[in-house]
């Protein structure tokens, strides 16, 4: 779908649709209106492409990590991540208002499409059914995000008027979730499997994406039996799509491997048309970045196991605090940049990244940690999703994966453990498969070791953390597990380059507070409640 570049036309269509509220005896012939627009498949496709472009944001994708314990948004407050992580926000926070509007704008586009597409009488019936299913999926995705952040939210399945929008009330979360699940089931019926799309349509929503998103919705609701059954539709039945782990964890996130066997749903970008440059403020300064605005934390780094499968705190792990990055889970090097990191440049040369004060033999020392500098406030940078083919200022069109098959395996492992059914067979299909792909070879790291449900829960949750690190999902996991009240209270740390007298020398990067009485739900935006008095507020706000 990267060949599509009709966003401008689509927005003109929306503007025409929004303004076409007057009764006219004659429809203008020199511009699009409701009465003359819905005439061709191409025009309908332009509106649907707009809905795709509104589905998610690259800024949310990256900066949501800064709202979790995986990263710190150290400069500015990009997407409100620093305020959200530190608990220093209220209903006036810009991110909260922005995201509310973002999702309802996307819902509006989907509703406009669904209410008008049948007016295109010449469209192939099968294609029309598929396009409707795509729009219903996108609308369901928006409602899923809304109820995940806010709980009860206004639910409507048609394009409402401005007057209606000023008086609508919140719908109970359970009802919104039920709507989302039913919409995904209906969409899956009319969506093709991933292998059925032609190359020109790669990246479009598939039957497998509808099933995988349904599994995620169920996961967030702790409906374990349903999660397991839904995941099995993708793990055991090729009639719903053909998916597998891509052989290389590093290669999974490189542009030459887009649309690989692991990708179930991604956020699409188009060279010279739709790009992003987040890495300009995430990569090391020594390789051309501007400053650091999103830094991985020591807490994330510590979560990576040793190659022998032991935690760094376990007896016999072999962990050396003075040489902390050796013999670790290989995914650490594919995700986080640390002191002495060998950064592979596009020309295959290597740039050594020095973050520890005094280690850089050069004169400029751009990445050395120092309080108040533009270098990383934790002394860590991000590698995952670096695009070697990016243009000036790290301008990239690399797709961002929203759902991948590894997540299906992790959801399945978590559900089976919560059901008391995580055995060697399930382990081998999920955790062992992921660790083998990552590069583990030691038998203790790969083989199933029976333990209590609580012990296995800790293992599965940590596996989810490291496998999906810096992909924007951690914040949702700690909220649904109700562990945010623990991991977002206290200091977020950086590398051991701080005063030895404080926290054993680990940098104190950011002090966080999480109030379990109110922070598990975002407040309804202040400005929305000012316009609509029927919008009640969440507890504690």
UniProtKB/TrEMBL annotation:
<dbReference type="Pfam" id="PF14322">
    <property type="entry name" value="SusD-like_3"/>
</dbReference>
<keyword id="KW-0472">Membrane</keyword>
<dbReference type="Pfam" id="PF07980">
    <property type="entry name" value="SusD_RagB"/>
</dbReference>
<dbReference type="InterPro" id="IPR011990">
    <property type="entry name" value="TPR-like_helical_dom_sf"/>
</dbReference>
<protein>
    <submittedName>
        <fullName>Starch-binding associating with outer membrane</fullName>
    </submittedName>
</protein>
<comment type="similarity">
    <text>Belongs to the SusD family.</text>
</comment>
<feature type="domain" description="SusD-like N-terminal">
    <location>
        <begin position="73"/>
        <end position="219"/>
    </location>
</feature>
<dbReference type="GO" id="GO:0009279">
    <property type="term" value="C:cell outer membrane"/>
</dbReference>
<keyword id="KW-0732">Signal</keyword>
<feature type="domain" description="RagB/SusD">
    <location>
        <begin position="290"/>
        <end position="541"/>
    </location>
</feature>
<feature type="signal peptide">
    <location>
        <begin position="1"/>
        <end position="22"/>
    </location>
</feature>
<keyword id="KW-0998">Cell outer membrane</keyword>
<dbReference type="InterPro" id="IPR033985">
    <property type="entry name" value="SusD-like_N"/>
</dbReference>
<dbReference type="InterPro" id="IPR012944">
    <property type="entry name" value="SusD_RagB_dom"/>
</dbReference>
